[in-house]
Automatic annotation (TrEMBL):
Protein name stated in the entry: Two-component system response regulator
Family annotation (Gene3D superfamilies): 3.40.50.2300, Homeodomain-like
Keywords assigned by UniProt, alphabetized: Phosphoprotein, Transcription, Transcription regulation, Two-component regulatory system
Gene Ontology biological-process entries: phosphorelay signal transduction system
PROSITE patterns attached to this UniProt entry: RESPONSE_REGULATORY
MF (Gene Ontology): sequence-specific DNA binding
């Protein structure tokens, strides 16, 4: 089975994740902070890293960026956070993460995500090996069949699948943006126009293009369960 490194400064979460994964047959190493994680990476190669964003010494995204800059990433990384935002998820992808788990992490979600990412990584490595063997001149481009990350934020009805064309990804983002902000603005188009900075005449058109109809929100049972409280955006520490 795969050898997994779990990096989290909270001992309770670290131990629970390790226990669940060991019970599923994985070999587990744990690290309580960035310095321990650095030592683990130097001493051993892993099949997967579960990396917490919020840590007291060096945050997870800074550590991920450091590993990538020094070519130390030889396995997939799944970021974890109890304060996840789209911004932090996008930063994680930019520096090499393949998925994002929001705390509290359920047993099912943990195991499903770990299995999926390991499978995606194996397919990606296989595609790379085929590309290297079939390419006479290495142009440095990634394999055309590469499996890219898929992030899901179910509380915002948002799925970011980077395997899709840019147009489709932006359509999903726009739909989630309008649905979420419309609810936070109490279904007021005037307030939504001020919040978004879009004139109301254009706002109706853009919402319709994104598949968001104001009348749908007035149908009993159409409005989703209460949205999570608005959280301040994550700002990683500068190295």
């Amino acid at each position: 089975m795969a050898d997994i490194l779990v990096v989290d400064d909270e001992v309770g979460i670290r131990n629970v994740l390790a226990e669940i994964l060991m019970d599923s047959g994985y070999t587990i190493t744990t690290a309580a902070n960035a310095e321990e994680a650095r030592r683990c990476i130097r001493e051993r190669k892993y099949s997967l890293i579960l990396l917490d964003i919020w840590m007291p010494d060096t945050d997870g995204i800074t550590l991920l960026r450091e590993w990538r800059a020094h070519n130390l990433l030889t396995c997939p990384v799944i970021m974890m956070s109890g304060h996840g935002t789209i911004d932090s998820a996008m930063q994680a992808v930019r520096y090499g993460a393949m998925d994002f788990l929001e705390k509290p992490i359920s047993l099912k979600n943990l195991l499903t995500t770990v299995d999926r990412v390991l499978e995606q990584w194996q397919r990606l490595e296989y595609q790379k090996s085929l590309t290297r063997s079939n390419r006479d001149d290495d142009d440095g481009l990634p394999a055309s069949g590469a499996i890219l990350p898929v992030f899901q934020l179910p509380e915002y009805n948002l799925k970011l699948d980077f395997n899709l064309p840019f147009r489709d990804v932006m359509h999903a983002v726009e739909r989630a943006y309008f649905e979420t902000t419309l609810q936070y603005q109490n279904l007021s188009m005037a307030r939504l126009a001020r919040h978004s900075g879009i004139e109301r005449t254009h706002l109706y058109r853009k919402m319709k293009a994104a598949g968001v109809e104001l009348d749908d929100f007035r149908i009993p049972g159409r409005l989703p369960s209460p949205l999570p409280a608005i959280r301040a955006p994550f700002k990683p520490k500068r190295p």
